[in-house]
Amino acid sequence: MSTLVILQCTGKKALGGQPMSVPDPFSGLLGSMRHQLMELYQPNLNFDELMPAYQRYGAGQLYSNMDWHTALQKIAQGSLKIIIVSALFGALEYDTPIPAYDLVMSKTKRRWLGGNLLGNTIQTYILANPNIKQVKSFISPSDYLPAMGNFIPPGIDDLGDHWIPYSRGAEVAIGHVTPFINRL
């Protein structure tokens, strides 16, 4: 059995990176919307400077205060999957290489919600990974949750959402995300 943890991206992003390639299971479903958003909001992204999403977001309080050592062990053991909801990229697996960008979900949530694109994509991901039996999300109810729409398919245990106040990412990481992952 595997648990899917859904995190939101952070406003603060680490800079730098290098060219890299890791398969992105969301590119086919989200590629068109990603391209539109890049053209509209981020036309000059540097795809020669990539880093895994969880490291790119590591400049923010949530990611820099998480116990990634344990999380990566749980991922390797198969008991944990992590996806990140991003204002620009929609959904990302934790290790998908991404460039630095500057965009907030409040600008893009209506586009992701249109036709329940983001919610349907996350559902498709869950259904394509039959070991996922439960989902826990640590996301903002004002921007990220509305952008996701209906994202948990029937038969999957919804462990609920934990709100992340933008200024308290460290507290949420230390007090909620890391203990939850450690219990898996």
Overall outline: globular
Largest sheet: 5 strands, mixed
Strand content: 15-25%
Radius of gyration (CA) equals 15 Å
* Helicity, as a percent range: 40-55%
Count of individual helical segments = 8
Placed side by side, the strands forming the largest sheet appear as 4-3-1-6-7
The arrangement of helices and strands along the chain is EHEHHHEEEHHEHEH
Distance between the termini: 10 Å
Average pLDDT score: 92
Decide which structural class fits the backbone. Answer: alpha/beta
How many distinct beta strands?
7
Which regions contain 5 or more consecutive residues with pLDDT less than 50?
none
Describe, in plain words, how this protein is organized in 3D.
This protein has 184 residues and is an alpha/beta fold. The protein is built from 8 helices and 7 strands. The chain has helices spanning 27-41, 53-56, 61-64, 68-77, 105-113, 117-128, 144-148, 169-183; strands spanning 2-8, 51-52, 80-86, 90-93, 97-98, 132-138, 157-162. The strands form 2 sheets. It has a 5-stranded mixed sheet, with helices on both faces. Strands 2-5 form a two-stranded antiparallel sheet. The N and C termini lie close together (10 Å).
